[in-house]
Design a protein that fits this description.
single chain, 5-stranded antiparallel β-sheet, SH3 type barrels, 1 helix, 7 strands, mainly beta
């Protein structure tokens, strides 16, 4: 998929959409080096769209939500490895929360302070 098409498709998604992502993952095939023509294999994964983050950009695909911990188990898929995205259902996930961290370096010490913020799907 061309980067312009991918960008347009990603912009049309909203948090909580149920999607199928086809992407090229590294193969774990045990072959001789000469037999590895293309080391990637096409993978289809289904899950909840949690957004796009990072540099380089990764799509966050929620696999499991643990209510007690208010945390997602998610797959981070590099945008450059995505072949296609298919919308299965809009707003398929009930309200859930995303945990975001802000990391700051303190000048006096070589330590890191982490601030925990919570945002819900209803906020866009």
């Amino acid at each position: 998929m061309k980067s312009e098409e991918m960008e347009k498709q990603l912009n049309s998604l909203t948090l909580g959409d149920y999607i199928r992502v086809s992407w090229f993952d590294a193969s774990e095939a045990r072959l001789t080096l000469s037999e590895h023509q293309k080391p990637e294999c096409l993978v289809d994964e289904w899950g909840i769209f949690l957004g796009v983050e990072g540099d380089p950009k990764h799509l966050l695909l929620g696999q499991h939500y643990v209510s007690m911990d208010r945390a997602w188990e998610a797959t981070r898929i590099p945008i450059t490895l995505i072949r296609s995205i298919q919308l299965i259902a809009k707003h398929a996930s009930p309200q859930a929360f995303l945990r975001r961290y802000i990391v700051r370096n303190l000048k006096k010490h070589h330590s890191v302070m982490v601030k925990d913020n919570w945002t819900g799907f209803e906020r866009r």
